[in-house]
Structure formats: structure tokens, C-alpha cells
Amino acid sequence: MQVSIESSKGLERQIKVVVPADKVESEVTQRLQKATKTVNIKGFRKGKVPLNVVKQQYGKAVRQEVVGETVNSSFYEAIKQEDLQPVGQPKIEAVVDNAGEDLEYTAVFEVYPTVKLADLSKVSITRPVADINSEDLEKMIDVLRNQQASFDETDKPAVDGDKLNIDFVGTLRGKKEFPGGSAEGQDLVLGSNSMIPGFEEGLVGVSAGDETDLKLKFPKDYHAEEIKGKAVTFAVKVNTVSAKTLPALDDDFFAMYGVEAGGEEKFREDIEANMQRELNNAIRNNVKNRIMDQLYTLNKVDVPQALVANEIVQLKKQMIQQFGGGQEIDLNMLPDDMFQAKAARRASLGVIVSEVVKVEALTPDDAQVRARVDEIASTYETPKEVVDYYYSKPELLSSVEAVVLEDQVTELVLSKGKVKEEKLSYEDAVKPDPEPEA
Predict the structure, then answer these.
(1) Cα–Cα distance, 252 to 265 (Å, whole number)
(2) For helices 21-35 and 51-81, what crossing angle results, to 10°?
(3) pTM of the prediction?
(4) Which of 53, 63, 107, 418 has the fewest Cβ atoms surrounding its Cβ within 10 A?
């Protein structure tokens, strides 16, 4: 077999492969001879069909099959011979396949870039540090009680936290209605910040049956171009006012959160444990993201378009899962350009992290993998069954191993870089960092 590199532009390689004719011809002949023993052709007994008859009927199809397999196997021999690392599947072009002649074809593909890692001691980040105090716990319990609150109609004026049912019509300069500015029978909890600034505040003190005009201004960064930054008037009619009643801290309430015994003490223990788990995860994710930002900034790499294309597909799937409402949506309906920059960044980080793993000879730590699986399982009613399930499914376990490997990269970089601790409140520490500009 002859292999020659025809061109090398950036990450693209074009190689020409020539496979000796006898390799293809002998394989075709062997398969046709084997077929003479098994095929059924009218006018001949099974096992007695002449080779030339089998060749006449099946020769073209058998040759196509052999050529396809030969191209596939010879391509991988060729890249091994030339010590190339292809990304994705090659594009096979200019196939020359004539009986009795050498098989020739050209394969076009991208290769992984050569990465020269920056000195990891140049990494510099801040690591959040936070504790959970009694005030944080009380706030969380208040959040849970508000989630289970009931509302009863009242004649009293509305206060923050009450639920109103309203009709409203929004107009520009009190004259022209604008799209999306009107509704009937809409429920609104005052203090939920679900409307533009000033809307909910303007309804504090209203009672059922009241009508009022709210003169407001849309934010300058509002998503609708025709009304952002514009002065508007909302004519609001209050249909009902319903006062909020918070549930008592009793066994019925505790049972909603899985506490069947142990009362308020056990409930508080469980809530604090969940908060601690959320805090740990948030700090771990923010530190990892900050490390990744630094690695991306310090290491500029050429990215194979095949990797970017794969990331675009994954980002589309994530968007559909998040916003698709369970509908079957064709990925091609979402334009690639919408995801291009983020996909390129993710692909770059994948190449960089892979290089760190290779250079440092990292492998997933079994103890960390088990700890991560145990952490996932702890949120279920039967943790042992979840653990057993993960260890019985190689694809699930490999996804955990990949996350652990990223954690190990993070730990390695932290050990070599500069880290400054930043004391934060619980509320600030659990907030995710803003997504970086791609």
C-alpha cells in the first residue's frame, strides 16, 4: 500500500492511498466463490452454481462491498503509518476503482492540533469561601414556606406578597397599544419582580374592584426594540386581592420535604444538609469554571471544525431540552451561527484539558468517582440502588469519570497556580459566575 500526503493546510490533511489491485481482486474472488455454495439461482442446484454466473449476478455488489471495507481499513492503516491523529470521519474523494487496476482514493480530514501548554503557575484565581449560619437557614425555610403558601380572597388593601388577579392594557403615551402589553385575568404576586420596575410597587395598597393608571418606563435594555426605554401607561383593573397564608411548621409541612419522622429538628438538619451540598457544588463549579477560563485565556489553540460542529449539535440539544417543552424539534431549525462562538470555546477547552490530562498522565481516581456517585445517589430515596445502577451502566459511569477527570485537572492547576480566598455570604457563594463572553 502506498500513502502520500498531498496537501497540509492548517489542520486539514489530504492523503492519497493506493491499494494493490490483487488485494481487492482476491477478496472479491473469495467472496464470490463462497457465494457459489450458498446462493439460490433459478436453473441451478444449490451449491452447484458456476462462478461466472454468480459473478454476473452479484459481482458488482460484492465488489462495492469489498471496496468500501478496503477503503475503511486502508485509511486507518495509512494514518497509523503516517502517525496522524484524525478528528471525525474523513471525506473520501477521487475514488478510482477499475477491475484489474490498483484501487486509489483521496482522504480529506482534520487532525488534532499540537498544543504547547502555558506554564500552569501563571493561573491566578479567587476561590469563594462561605459558611451557612442560622440566618441563612431561616431564609431558606421561609422560601420553602412561601412555595407552599395558600391564598384567600380578602377585602383588605394589597400588601407585598399578596396575589392579585388583574386586567391591564398598556399604551404608548396613553394612546397606542403595543404588542404583549395587555392581559385579562392574570395572576400576579406582588414582590415577585415578574413585571417591569414600578408595576408591582404601584399596586401596593389597591383593593378588589379598584382601577388605576401606572405611568412607567421600560428599561433601556428591554428585549423588545419598539418599547425599550419608552414611557408607557398601564390601565389596571383589580379583579381580586388574595392574602398569603404561610403553612405552619408541622408534620404535614415536613412530610412535603420527605421528613416522615423526627419533627422540626430533623427537618432543619435535612434542609441544612441540602444547603451545604448546594454550597459545595456551587463553589466547586465556580472554581472549575474560573480555572477553565484561565486555561482558555493562556492557551490559544487552533480548533478542528469537526469538534466545533459536534459542540454545536450538543448545544442545540441542550437548548431543545431546556426550552422545547418535550416537543420533537429538528436541530436544523436552529441556525449554527447562533452557537458558533460558544461551541468554538468549548471545543478549544476540550483540546486543552485533554492535553493537560495527557501531559500529566491523569486517570480517573476510583475513590473520587465513587464519592461523586454516592453524592448523586444521596438525593434519592434508595441510594444503594442508584449506586448499583451507575456501576452497571458503563456509559453512565464514564460520564461521571469524565467529570472527575475535570475535577482532577482543576485540583492540579490549583496546586500550581495562585489562589486567593474570598469570604462570601451563602447567598453570594451559591450564585453561578456570569457566563464568559465567547
Answers:
(1) 14
(2) 140
(3) 0.74
(4) 418
